[in-house]
Amino acid sequence: MRRGEFLAIIKRAAAESSKTSGLPAEITVAQAILESNWGESVLAREGNNYFGIKAHGKHPAIELPTLEHVAGRNRRKRARFARYASMEECFACRDRLITSGARYAKARALRSDPEPFARALAEHWATDPNYAEKLIAMYRSLRSGGC
Q1: How far apart (Å, rounded) are the C-alpha atoms in residues 139 and 60?
Q2: What domain count does the chain have?
Q3: Cα-to-chain-centroid distance, residue 19
Q4: Is residue 62 part of a domain?
Q5: Range of the domain at 97
Q6: pLDDT band at 45 (very low <50, low <70, confident <90, very high)
Q7: C-beta separation of 1 from 44 below 8 A
Q8: 78 has which bridge partners?
Q9: Which uninterrupted H or E stretch holds 74?
Q10: CA distances from 142 to 33, 73, 101, 125 (A)
Q11: Distance CA 83, CA 71 (A)
Q12: Would you say residue 66 lies in a domain?
């Protein structure tokens, strides 16, 4: 799938999930692109998981290698990621995690301002210490029409 096609599809999914959650759809789009490498990651293609959401309990899962930043070092490991029936299910799950998880209270409080929201979200979403900057760079690139 071409990037333009992928972008149009995820913009619709983000707009739909945002109607319920009130979270900034533009950050959802930027995050889906960043996490899924424009929908090309194995996790996105085989698991309809565009955000690197881990599986818990009996949730359908796909096990894949991942890179985690722990104690100042990058470490490769295998992890169980959630598998979704559709893109829409994944986007709705991502928004539910943010709107209901205690760790995302700060992000929720900043939902009306995309960049501070992204910074607060990044505090708990990923182990990459540069995640916020990468997410905001993608968001800005999309806003300027650079992608």
Answers
A1: 30
A2: 1
A3: 17
A4: no
A5: 3-45+86-143
A6: very high
A7: no
A8: 65
A9: strand 73-82
A10: 10, 30, 27, 21
A11: 28
A12: no
CA distances from 51 to 21, 22, 147 (A): 16, 18, 19
Please report the pLDDT score of residue 81 as a whole number.
97
Least reliable range by pLDDT among 23-27, 70-74, 100-104, 111-115 = 70-74
Query: Which CATH number does the domain housing residue 111 bear?
Result: 1.10.530.10
- Stated pTM of the model: 0.92
CB atoms within 10 A of CB 138: 22
How far from chain centre, in Å, is Cα 82? 13
Local structure of 62: helix, strand or coil:
strand
pLDDT of 1 > 70? The answer is: yes
CA dihedral 68, 116, 18, 45 (to 10 degrees): -20
Q: What is the pLDDT of residue 147?
A: 61
Q: Is residue 134 part of a domain?
A: yes
- Distance between CA 44 and CA 32 in Å, rounded? 9
Instruction: Judge whether 130 lies within some domain.
Output: yes
Q: Write the pLDDT tens digit of every residue in 107-116.
A: 999 999 999 9
Confidence class for position 16, pLDDT limits 50, 70, 90 = very high
